[in-house]
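Hi F.,

I've been meaning to write this up properly since the lab meeting, where we talked about keeping a consistent format for the predictions we share between groups. The idea is simple: the sequence comes first, exactly as it goes in, then the structure tokens exactly as they come out, then a line or two of notes. No screenshots and no reformatting. I'm using this chain as the first example so we have something concrete to point to.
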Amino acid sequence: MESPVQPVAQEPSREEVQKVKKDQFTWWQALIILAATLAICLSAGYYISEKYLWNQTSDEITKQLKYYQSQVKAKPNDAELRVQLGYTYYLKGDDSNAIKELKTAKNLDKKSYGAYLNLAIVYDKENKNDDALQMAIKASSLVTQDYKSLLLKGRSYRKLKMYKEASAALEEAARYKPANTDIVYEAALVARDQGKKKDAENLFKEVLSYDPTYKPALKELDKLSKKN
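Output, unedited:
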């Protein structure tokens, strides 16, 4: 876009000045706004299922990582920035540094919901099920009526073969977030792991009734059909 040219003898209008400022908007300003928006999203932490992968390129995540590294360097005692940095390490695939930063965040702020929930996410990925469960339990105690931490509790209980507890956690999560595909899918996995094939099949179909493109449910249904 060409820069607007102002007449020499004419004072620019307010609208023209605003347009010039908009045209001069730089990429690093856009990155800062993106980071600030991300900070709002991550401040509470959130669960990302196999279906909902973070849609960022490697270069974007690297820029995001550098941004939060610089922010943490400037404000090392800011727990929230540590949460952002930890989660960005997770996006980068660096679970070790993600755990390190998130642990630092919860040590700085014992009531950091984002630190506990995101630790549960990383531990779940690492199949450290006991640790994931403890972090999810702590997160759910900090924020009531929160389906995300309850979903993670249910998932951890299922992996630990504590099916009764898993079902209870998922039922509670469903009360706060009805018709959520991740919750129904996790409930289907609980049924599957208990050998309740018909129940699992019906729940996987329920997931697909909400979202026909939900790939994990499609895969599980295909596996069940091959067992017939």
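Notes:
The chain has twelve helices and no strands.
Confidence is low (pLDDT under 50) at residues 1-54.

If this format works for you, I'll send the rest the same way.

G.
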